[in-house]
Amino acid sequence: MRVETIGGCTLYLGDCLEIMKSIDTVDHIISDPPYEDELHKAVGRIRRNDGREMVDDLGFSGINSRRADVSLACVKISSGWTILFTLAEGVRAWRDDLQAAGAKWDTTLAWIKPDASPRFNGQGAARGFECAITCWCGTGYRRWNGGGKRGVYTHCVN
Question: What is the distance between the alpha carbons of residues 150 and 127, in angstroms, rounded to a whole number?
Fold first, then answer.
């Protein structure tokens, strides 16, 4: 596990289930867990047009089998918002598991990526946005410092 402190925020890099076991409570969780198994399975099926070898394994599994456990852990330690990045295909599964764990589902945000990489092999459209799901794990009324503005954020990747 790697820990970085930036101002008043502490960032943890590692297996979220292992990290969350060692934490009592946090104000908010913002995480980019592995994407759904379907994307991981596609890795070995995509071919390169330049003849070079394609990666067959990302070195970690998709989130599907661990999503319910991650949802429970988030609800257990978050006293506020839980925000998780996901593919559009994963939004409903996250909603279902987070609600089953006791979270109050809120909405899906969109991160528009103007400089997202194209799909270099031309075998379909590239992803130009990413979703982030939001749920409230705290007590009382939810508070969002954006003042109710639209949940669409345009920001370059690089």
Answer: 21
Name which of 82, 70, 141 is nearest 107 in CA terms.
82
- Answer yes or no: are the C-beta atoms of 23 and 73 closer than 8 Å: no
3 state DSSP class of 100? helix
Both tokens assigned to 104: 């109050």
Backbone angles phi, psi at 68, to 5 degrees: -65, -40
Residue 45 has pLDDT above 70, yes or no: no
**Taking CA 118 as the corner, what is the angle to CA 114 and CA 121, rounded to the nearest 5 degrees?**
175
The pTM for the full model equals 0.83
Cα angle 133, 135, 140; round to 5: 160
Residue 107 CA: distances (Å) to CA of 10, 50, 65, 131: 25, 41, 23, 10
